Amino acid sequence: MIFITAKFRVKPEYAERWPEITREFTEATRNEPGCLWFDWSRSLDDPTEYVLVEAFRDGDAGAAHVQSGHFESAVQTLPPHLVETPRIVNTVLEQDDWSQLGEMAVQD
């Protein structure tokens, strides 16, 4: 799978509305057949920073994502809400889902 984590620093005046601003893009991406997950979180240390954790089945699914109309729209509409260019980590992993963190296994 292609595993991506990106950090978005949002202008303070848009920080509270970021989930709404990205809703259409998020929903469309989650509906892509090759999308495994597409999840936003907000930093506990910086209320203007959102972290996106996303995964796609394979390279073809990743390519379909960046070639989609909703991705193209996001490239045009999201940057004016940002302080800086998002930072990203993008890698290929030999798995297709989350693994368990065995060191913190929950005991019954």
TrEMBL record:
Pfam families: ABM. The keyword Oxidoreductase applies. SUPFAM superfamilies: Dimeric alpha+beta barrel. InterPro entries: ABM_dom (IPR007138), AI-2_Isomerase_LsrG (IPR050744), Dimeric_a/b-barrel (IPR011008). Keywords: Monooxygenase, Oxidoreductase. It comes from the Bacteria. GO terms for molecular function: monooxygenase activity. Its EC number is 1.-.-.-. Residues 2-93 form the ABM domain. PANTHER family: ABM DOMAIN-CONTAINING PROTEIN, QUINOL MONOOXYGENASE YGIN-RELATED. This is Quinol monooxygenase.
